[in-house]
Amino acid sequence: MPDVRELMDALVAHPAAPALPMDEIKRRARARRTRRHTKLAVVAAMALVAGPVRWAGSDSGTPVRTTSSPGEDAPEAATPSSAASHEPGNKGRGSTQATAALSPDHIGHHPGMPPPPALKCKRGANGGATDVGVTDNKVRILMRATLDGPGRALVEDAPSVVKAVVDRVNRSGGICGRLIDVHVVNDTTGRTWTQEGTGDYFAGLVGPLQAGFDEHILNRTVDRAGLPLVGTDGLTQAQFQSDLAWPVGTSAAALARIAVDHAYRTLGARTFAMAFDSTDSWSKEAEAAFRAHVARLPGASVRITTGFDPREPSYSGAAQEFNGECRDQRCDVVVLAVLPNTAAKWLKAHPERARLQTAGLPFLPSNRFAEDCAMYALTSCDGFRVWTGFVPKGPNPLVASAEVGVHVLIEAMKRVGPNLTRARLQAALTEETYPSELTNVLDWNPVSPGPRGGNTWARAYDIRDRAFHDAGTGWVPDP
Amino acid sequence: MEDSRDDQFAAWYAQEHPKLLAALLLVAGDVHTAQEATDEAFVRAFMHWRRVRAMDSPRGWTYRVAVNVLRRRGRRAAMERTLLAHQEPPPFVPAPAGEAWEAVRRLPPRQRMAIVLRFLADLTEEEAGRAMGVSRTTVSRALADARSSLGRMLAEDPTMEVGCA
Question: Which of B38, B93, B119 comes nearest A4 by C-beta?
Fold first, then answer.
């Protein structure tokens, strides 16, 4: 083994490029601060020219309910230390925004103007309208939720979960004097992904199983809209491709790798099989990751992966193909990457049982499934395992992503403090870690270049006596 | 007070700069990219120095910021190349990094990162894990895999001639 350390010591002793002089470091730091100040000053100047601005309504979908709204007509508190003129009686957002925008502490001192006071984390001194969707007493958050379609039953509780968290925070005064105003939309047109649709909000929460999200990331609609989005379910790789999305769930690909790797190392499993949804991108990514990881493990092999369309009236054809390869316990481990209803229907088609373990990827650790499993499979489901990136607090771990998301967003806004801007929120989310009761620590700043991390862990739950129980694996990292 | 804070940063910066630059050079494989990311990370560390110096590992924080900068710029550059049909510029790894670069460049990114953070940046396995977003166990495994990969690579001596059959 070559002494790589010696090679690296030589690198340190003879740097490939010189360090910047301290004067240059200071100059660049000042320039960064000035750029931020200039941006805010331009916004303030534009607001002064435009006058009071009435923000256009942003939701084109069916507005379902507004949670924790502090009242649209609440007068903005005048900022006592504002340096620009403030017309008495004019409580329009434009003028307040103009005056408030000049008062934040990060504005550079301009000749002839008194130096601005430092911001404080309370109403009246928090800098007011520090960014889009932010005022002295409110911060507007857009939540998209899936309230139609086949996935509705799985995720329709997400908005109420978010509302409960937000209400608790608002009862104790909000964040730095700003109450959180969450507006839930069921947007079936996709308009609220665009800049036009998001322009009035500071940040967004994305409910689980949000249709069209991947497409809007890959075609860069999300990036162009500029709205930071927190709390996506993390199932698909696309969610990790945008600097404006912070997924809180473990990707299906990571879950597949964890399921395979853990069975390989702890059970001695060597032959693997998978049944997956051939129509859904997260499931197909799980299959690809499954194959790739088995190929990396010495002595391991994939006997079969069977993809099928869940909308088919029967899965007997797919099960027959599957059974051809897994009969006589030829498959040590079988992984199911399908929704719970699909899993139940698959079991009804009587696929061959795995020799060592059947493992499901997300959605499955619900006691309803545990109860139904034995009925569908016509045999005991004891030992059936699911891997999930969330502690299954309620009946559906998918809703956990909404709860984790809102907690992370609130914590990040608290860490940013009174000078609440999108850029600072992004930096706080990306450069710091976030502990959670429902996940392992969340960290979106992985060192390796490539897709962002976020939640790269999972834990297992096994069925025993028609209910899921913690399998005692603890949090297992994505190998 | 301001001067002593600046002096403290300057001393820390002088000590850490060569290691961070070397680490990023071995990750990015190009000195210009590594230099930009290093400079950006230290400017940000200076801007947030009051908070950074109070952390358990200011070095860990700075490495994380630097690699994030690297990652974003890499992504932007890739997009520009796609959109503008630019050719990818050849990487530039000047001496004395050449030998070290040759040793690690064929490692998978995670193994390369683990080796660089552990042996060059002198982070503990736990700190390296935090910087990489993985567990300490994963870092240990990556280091073990990297050691055996490096051993295999050097056992396949490229200077040996293989006769054509």
Answer: B119
Q: Which of A369, A198, A342 is nearest to A275 (CA)?
A: A342
pLDDT tens-digit series, residues A318-345: 888 898 999 998 999 999 998 877 887 8
Of B42, B64, B119, the CB nearest to A5: B119
Give the pLDDT confidence of A209-219 residue by residue, as tens digits. 666 778 888 88
**pLDDT band, very low/low/confident/very high, at A351 (cuts 50, 70, 90):** confident
What is the distance between the alpha carbons of residues A349 and A342, in angstroms, rounded to a whole number? Answer: 11
> CB of A129 within 8 A of CB of A135?
yes
Indicate whether A242 pLDDT > 90: no
Give A80's DSSP letter. Answer: T
CB contact under 8 A, A7 and B100: yes
- B60, two tokens: 């860990």
Q: Quick one: pLDDT at residue A31? A: 82
Spatial CB neighbours of B7, under 8 Å, sequence gap ≥ 6: none
Instruction: Split chain B (165 residues) into runs of 10 and give each run's mean pLDDT.
Output: 78 91 83 88 91 86 82 62 49 60 74 82 81 79 80 50 30
- Are A338 and A275 in contact by the 8 Å Cβ rule? The answer is yes
pTM of the model: 0.60
| List of chain B residues whose C-beta atoms are within 8 Å of the C-beta of residue A20 | 39, 42-43
The answer to whether A107 touches A114, Cβ cutoff 8 Å, is no
- Reported as type and span, the H/E element at residue A182 is strand A179-186
**Between B136-155 and B125-132, two packed helices, what is the crossing angle to 10 degrees?**
100
The C-alpha of B7 sits at a distance from chain A's nearest C-alpha, in angstroms, of 10
Best CA proximity match to A248, nearest among A198, A193, A301, A206: A206
Instruction: Say how many C-beta atoms besides its own lie within 10 A of residue A447's C-beta.
Output: 30
Asked if A26 and B104 come within 8 Å (Cβ–Cβ), the reply is: no
* A176 touches A415 (CB < 8 A): no
Enumerate chain A positions whose Cβ falls within 8 A of a Cβ in B. Answer: 1-2, 4-5, 7-8, 10-17, 19-20, 22, 25-26, 28-29, 32-33, 243, 430-431, 433, 443, 445-450, 453, 456-457, 477-479
Q: What angle (nearest 5°) sits at the alpha carbon of residue B17, between those of residues B16 and B20?
A: 85
Three-state SS at A37: helix
Interchain contact, B18 vs A19, CB within 8 Å? yes
Q: Kindly state the helix (H) or strand (E) to which residue A289 belongs, with its residue range.
A: helix A281-296
How far apart CA B25 and CA A388 sit, in angstroms, is 37
Task: Give the Cβ contact number of residue A85 at 10 Å.
Answer: 9
| pLDDT higher than threshold 70 for residue A317 | yes
DSSP category for residue A235: -
Q: Tell me the C-alpha to C-alpha distance, in Å, between residue A252 and each of A120, A217, A257, A272, B33.
A: 43, 18, 9, 17, 33
Q: What are phi and psi of A240, to 5 degrees?
A: -100, 10
Q: What is the C-alpha to C-alpha distance for residues A67 and B107, in angstroms, rounded to an integer?
A: 51
